[in-house]
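During the first year of the project, the team set up a workflow for recording each protein of interest as an amino acid sequence followed immediately by a discrete structure-token representation. This format lets reviewers and collaborators read both layers of information side by side without switching files. As required by the reporting guidelines, we include two representative entries from the current panel. The first entry is reproduced here exactly as it appears in our internal archive.
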Amino acid sequence: MFQFAAGLALSLRHDTGIELDARSFERDRLRKFSLFNFGLRPTTATETLKKWPPVRRGLVNFPWWKIRHGIGVQYVRERGPISQENIAQIGPSAYLHGYWQNERYFADHASEVRRALRIVSPIDPTNQKWLDRIRDRAAISVHVRRSDYTTDAVNQNLYATCDLNYYVNSAEYLAENISSKPYFMVFSDDPEWSAANLRLPGEADFVAHNSGDAFIEDLRLMSACRHHIIANSTFSWWGAWLGENPDRTIVAPANWYRDAVRDLNNPIPPNWIRIPLMANADAASM
């Protein structure tokens, strides 16, 4: 979604089309190309890319690669934070290579991105009941991500840990700073653990019925909540950013990554509330 948003904003700046290189999903066991869930019919650059070999992460001599394959485009690789001035210098014919996980890359076209990423698929009766409850109760979304963050050694070393204290402190902050009685709607890839361990200052419900390809329904429900407590997860980032309430308060972890240098480019917008995490928290304690 971040990559699409950055590409869409670039295309709007130059009044050009956008094509998506979705070839990496062919070998991705965890993720699917899912933009069709938003009613989008994006053009995948299949025909154009047939004459291009895939751009690989370790490629260092891209100018030589372009000459060899006759590609007349500007190659822009995200190696770190890219300033607004440098973003403005990206031309109309460009190949964006990176994650682009920061609002700065599309903030000037935020309204168009929101419209493009509206979920338009029909909602089923079960999720409609949850949606009605969320709107009637002015719910606060809480997203807990565990799975690969607690079992994968690479992710454990890369990402900061949103420990239980983070969720309690975030919930207490909102309970003290909103006018309505707090009602929490918890979304998690481990709902059983969340229900057994989260102790929130108010009534809470745990959404556990949307799994697999139904993840889009969790995103729909999250974005309908009045306020948000996110994990350091792009899924909950988008659930909060796409929120329907213009006066929403979004609480996020103060650190996205463990490494301080890498964390300089974390995706948390400056107007979101940052709650500190426990130093060197053990992921297994989540």
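The second entry, processed by the same pipeline in the following quarter, appears below.
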Amino acid sequence: MAEPLQKKLQAELEKYQQLQKELGRAVAARQKLETQLTENNIVQEELQLLDESNCIFRLLGPVLLRQELRQAREHVGKRLQYIGGELKRYEQQMQELERRSEQQRELLGRLQQELQARP
């Protein structure tokens, strides 16, 4: 009689482990985005120190291309907006995964109690 309950517990444990893996991937992706955000903020600060007489170059593949200061500032601003949006998206995803993990953890606890209560 405990066999079906044991199988259900194992299946739910696998679901929980999968949620934890997804959460780990989301955390890693968010950390990467935070690094990119920091780098782009530094670039934006450096670009603010320049005037139109300075030459700006952009690395595109293996080639350095000359770019106008205005274009460089716009490009970095757009990247910052994009990264900010992605960070918000990952934060929401992580909150959802944490909520689902907590529900799964509670279910596992109930199943373990039920299994231990059986003779």
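For the second entry, the following points were noted during internal review. Residues 32-117 form a domain with the Helix Hairpins fold (CATH 1.10.287.370). Residues 69-117 form the longest helix (49 residues). Both points are flagged for discussion at the upcoming steering committee meeting.
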